[in-house]
Amino acid sequence: MEKERDFFEKLEKRGVSRRDFMRYCTFLTATMGLSSSFVPKVAEVFAAPAQRPPVVWLQFGECTGCTESLLRSIYPGIDQLVLEILSIEYHETIMAAAGKQAEENLHNAVKKYEGKFVCVVEGAVATKYDGAYGKIGGKTFLQIAKEVCPKAAAVICYGTCSTFGGVQAANPNPGGYKGVGEAIGIKTLNIPGCPPNPVNLVGTIVSYLLLGKLPALDNLGRPLFAYGKSVHDQCQRRSHFENNEFVKEFGSKEAAMGYCLYKMGCRGPETFNNCPTAKFNDGTSWPVEAGHPCLGCSEPNFWDKMSPFYKEM
Amino acid sequence: MRAVENAVKVKIPKNARIIRNLLHGAQFQHDHIVHFYHLHALDWVDIVSALSADPAKTAALADNVSNAPWGGAVYFKEVQQRIKTFVDSGQLGPFNNAYWGHPAYKLPPEANLMAAAHYIEALKLQAKAARMHAIFGGKNPHPQSLVVGGVTCVADLTPDRIAEFLFITKETQEFINKVYIPDLLAVASFYKDWGAIGGTTNFLAWGEFPEGDNEPDSLLMPRGVIMKRDIAGMKMAIQEKVTEHVAHGWYEDGDAKHPYIGETKPKHGDYVTDKKYSWFKAPRYDGEPCEVGPLARVLVAYGKGNKEIKALVDSTLAKLGVPVQALFSTLGRTAARGLETVAIGAATERWVMELIENLKSGDTKTYTAWEMPNSAMGVGLNDVPRGSLGHWIKIENKVIKNYQYVVPSTWNLGPRCDKGKLGPVEEALIGTPVADPKRPLEILRTIHSFDPCIACGVHVIDPESNQVYDIKVL
């Protein structure tokens, strides 16, 4: 209890009220599909664990948009994730070490926490020509993935590239890029999206810390709490679809009234993700709310399968 | 987007132009804050030294140099305690094994503590600032409301959305003016010698933020090229003068080509520095390498006599007591980034007002319909936070025949061209003093000052032992 009081005092000093925080935990608990009795437990997970779970974050063929998305996490903020909740042992974008010292960090973390660390991967792995298309410090992505991933307690593919290959794997794919699971033949937990929603990574991590296991997954390795329903089924504009009220041109009267974007090429019906309910950037918006059709960015091979964009399915 | 709009000859409506400026203005502010505090500050700030700071003295220092909304001995004591708890846990996470204690770190412990506190505050602020993007873009990163012909967010042009955007802009600007710039000046005052290290020779800016119809004249950050550091001799930049070389890149050999006829035929190979050693092509303007980015933009604006930029630059040089030549350096680059953030932040607020006025006048148009021609060519030139960006498209039979883009990090980090001329970062690193080749903190300073968009490898040669150190910058 004392620890909890301490925790809330600290939060308040940082401008986060207890009420805001509990509301966030309720939202996260609901996003994860847990009953409301879990809310206090979710809050407890954030109240500074004694030993912060080690995380090794690998970056392969990517644009760092996935990392950027995590930096947008509001509750907990990235400062809390880094300083109080997780122990990010290796992360090229945020770590202060460089060069040889950075590589030592990776090597040491994998050795010290073998079988215990969570490996988060951002980006796809080049597989053609022995992985020649992607190297860090002289080692191919393929080598690094093979060395590090099998030693993790769990591998989380964060984003469409590490999950399914993403834009690198789109036709003609000269480097032979693949998602991590396919590239090295392991099972991974997948949180696809371009970018993925940080809420879903945080939800997965909380589930791991809280229940000691990863959440239930669908046949593509995606947590059901986030990817169990189609975008179409959760869309705020769904009633317009049922009423045959469609946008046929951007900027039109129908667009201003927020009609359905199906005829503008929306891929919501074949895309499974919680964008409409979780939204992005602290619940600010999501693409369809901004009047743009869903591109299906979290589905396998979406660059090839979902295009040409803006054409009705 | 602009390349296609240029090819299909569509003019976007005024609201679309303003909203694109708002989104892009938000992007610049967000990016530059994150770059300064989270991708560059630890090259200058020793976090471990912050543990030995006196919180009361830190508070006094902060009151003196910064108008930050947070401060006081209690606040700094708490930040210090937070860092101490973290360090005492033995799990140093992303701060493990860095160059802490390196002799090239010059800040006193109190300045380090102040900077560490603002590093954390900036982490929180940036998450909020990114919401500006999401308001009219659906999400950040990767906003999704831009289409050829305009923007899709017509349903978001409501008073509540606009007000939300405006007040986040104001909060972000407050951070920029009261925290970022004072911190930049405070840190710079300890590193004035870096005003003579890490400079380059030529500068290119395509410019950005059209404030009217006739580009490039209407650009807030103007278009121009400066050769041989001759600011007064600044000229208009012309896209026809761009070529890309592949002599030292892992591509099939061929002549230097303009992007309209450019080819991208990757051919992986070994890392051989006198032959091929990079996945970058080498872009050249009129045959010359050019630095792009904040420094290039600020120099071009300065050369063009932009009053706001000139006032910002001159007052900064005066405050630091350094000559105008100090701009051609690592310090100049890092300072230019901060200064343009001030100008772009102020402009963003003006654009919100411009949007409101235009909507009030009854103009709600956000999109212009267009048709795909059978064949066409188009070019889109602008500047993004890291520098000049050009896209070139050729359309045949209504589909893409050729598409080439030359991005900022290609300009800055590209290898030598077929004439053997060094790329800007290569040039900037020559002569960098390195106190300890095994811990080349100084190299990181210059490379990070370009805000590179890659993980790259550099070699350092110790002139005494002639030993080559392989340094990787991550």
Can you walk through the features of this model?
The complex is a heterodimer of chains A (313) and B (474). Chain A has 313 residues and is α/β, with parallel strands linked by helices. Chain A has helices spanning 2-13, 18-31, 39-45, 65-71, 78-85, 99-112, 141-148, 160-164, 180-184, 198-211, 224-227, 231-234, 238-242, 253-256, 275-278, 302-305; strands at 54-59, 87-91, 118-122, 125-126, 135-136, 139-140, 154-158, 177-178, 189-191. Chain A contains 16 helices and 9 strands. In chain A, the strands form 3 sheets. Chain A has a 5-stranded parallel β-sheet with strand order 2-1-3-7-9, sandwiched between helices. Chain B has a 3-stranded antiparallel β-sheet. A two-stranded antiparallel sheet of chain B has the order 1-2. In chain B, helix 2 (14-40) packs antiparallel against helix 5 (109-129) and helix 2 packs antiparallel against helix 6 (131-137). The radius of gyration of chain B is 23 Å and the shape is globular. Chains A and B meet through helix 4, helix 5, strand 2 and helix 6 of A and helix 2, helix 4, helix 5, helix 6 and strand 2 of B.
